[in-house]
Specification:
Chain lengths: 190, 300
């Protein structure tokens, strides 16, 4: 039930990113700059409510979907790789440090938004870094600074519409009170 | 250290390896069956969804445009009225010259201008999630005869070229993208050069930059450029207007002359475009360029 609803919600987010957000004229506002990235906002919500392996899987799936949907401006797999790692790291760090709203408790909304901002910055840098590694001539230093900064800001602005509803959905649908407690790990971290 | 179960690590490793394999497959030159199939699948979802959103969002988009343009609307109306009066006057004069113009047209073989065969399409997306690439998705694909490496134009001039074509959508690399390079010819002197999107190293900031191979070639602000044309018309057919020279950079010791261009096409308001599916039988040279604004045809 929980997975099915999440899957539907995530599919909706990916479609909205591809057919609505990508055709809004953000480029006209900031001279070819980036728009908000709903995928990052969705991956953070999932990573905060699931384990590292599942979060990596969700990240991979969402990234691959966006890779495959038009416009074909980058190689397939680039986004999948980055969102997969992002989901894994966010979930791993969240689980292991017992950050606010750790295991079993409700995640603080402000904490979730902060995580979105940090993740968006990280994803932006990783995407640009991978571009440098692959010899993508578009990733110059000044371009990266603008694109990552503006993109992360817009993603944060869009997060209340994506991350928070997804978090609420997943928390509301966890069947019993200890649904999210993982076996041997202590709730207080390590 | 951060703790995690071996099984979870294994999952991550498998997914990362899978991504890298896909990256390598898709990064290689030429078409790969796996990634091509994946893109076709993605498009199958994208095309109807985008069409639906376009249908629903059209009134909203119009409203947004209206609100955005409202501050300048009064100026625009005044400007249009002035232009209208001017055009009416011109029309009056043109009627007198009509007979003569007909013969001239025949003489110059201007009818049909470039003689391209064009498939119309609508530009669907304008941004990419990460904002580095200048690409647009159009709502026509191989089913309409569009294939990769075809020239995309609109009423004003060169838009770009098709880099990926699916059955019902295609991705267009705009001429302003950093990776775009178009062979160009100066209208007046016929000197050739390359028009690159964005800024070339050592050049000033610009949407389009021209690099002329001939250091001695005279080029000045106001000179106009058309595409040079590629072998068998792919990816660029000859004779499409690219833009106007705005500023020439004088840099002693440089290997080429660099000039900033004003694009012929307004890329910020890209809407209806045409994909050239068959080039002209012969190079139309610069006959596709509109008449020079400072020297109206009828005075010649």
């Amino acid at each position: 039930m929980r997975s099915a609803v999440t899957l539907l919600a995530v599919a909706a987010v990916v479609l909205v990113q591809a057919v609505v957000v990508n055709r809004l004229p953000f480029g006209a506002l900031s001279d070819g700059g980036p728009g908000p990235d709903l995928a990052v906002a969705a991956v953070v919500a999932l990573a905060l409510t699931t384990g590292p392996a599942a979060a990596a899987g969700w990240g991979f799936g969402i990234g691959l979907a966006l890779d495959v949907l038009p416009p074909a401006d980058h190689a397939i797999g680039r986004y999948a790789l980055i969102l997969c790692l992002a989901g894994y790291l966010v979930s791993l760090i969240h689980r292991n440090t017992g950050a606010p709203g750790g295991v079993g408790a409700r995640t603080s909304r402000l904490f979730a938004l902060g995580t979105v901002l940090v993740t968006a910055l990280g994803v932006g840098l990783a995407y640009a870094g991978l571009g440098v590694l692959m010899g993508d001539p578009r990733t110059g230093l000044s371009d990266i600074a603008v694109a990552v900064g503006v993109g992360a800001g817009l993603t944060l602005a869009a997060a209340p519409l994506v991350t928070l509803p997804l978090l609420w959905l997943r928390e509301a649908l966890s069947d019993h009170e200890f649904a999210t407690v993982q076996g041997p790990m202590s709730p207080r971290g390590w | 250290m951060l703790r995690d179960s071996p099984r979870s690590r294994l999952t991550l490793t498998v997914l990362v390896v899978l991504s890298v394999v896909l990256l390598v497959l898709d990064g290689r030159p030429g078409r790969d069956p796996v990634t091509a199939a994946a893109r076709a699948g993605g498009e199958l979802v994208f095309a109807p969804a985008a069409a639906g959103v376009g249908y629903v969002a059209a009134p909203v988009g119009d409203l947004y445009d209206t609100v955005r343009r409202a501050p300048g609307a009064a100026d625009r109306i005044a400007e249009l009225e002035e232009a209208n009066a001017e055009l009416e006057e011109e029309l009056h004069a043109a009627r007198l010259d009509e007979g003569r113009a007909e013969h001239l047209d025949e003489l110059l073989h201007l009818s049909g201008l470039g003689g391209y065969e064009i498939v119309p399409a609508q530009a669907v997306t304008r941004t990419t999630p990460r904002g580095y690439a200048d690409v647009a998705t159009i709502d026509a694909g191989t089913e309409s005869g569009i294939d990769t490496d075809m020239t995309v134009v609109n009423g004003r001039g060169l838009v770009g070229r098709v880099i990926e074509a699916g059955p019902r959508t295609a991705t267009v690399l705009l001429a302003t993208d950093v990776t775009s390079a178009v062979g160009a010819r100066l209208e007046s002197t016929r000197k050739i050069g390359v028009v690159t999107g964005g800024t070339v190293p050592g050049g000033p900031a610009a949407d389009l930059t021209l690099e002329l191979f001939d250091m001695e070639a005279p080029v000045e602000a106001g000179d106009r450029l058309v595409t040079l044309g590629s072998h068998e018309g792919a990816p660029f057919v000859p004779g499409v207007p690219i833009g106007t020279v705005e500023d020439v950079q004088v840099s002693p010791g440089a290997l080429s002359r660099i000039a900033v261009l004003t694009p012929a096409v307004d890329f910020a308001s890209l809407d209806l475009v045409g994909v050239v599916v068959a080039g002209p039988a012969e190079d139309p040279r610069d006959s596709v360029l509109p008449p020079k604004p400072d020297a109206p045809e009828r005075e010649k």
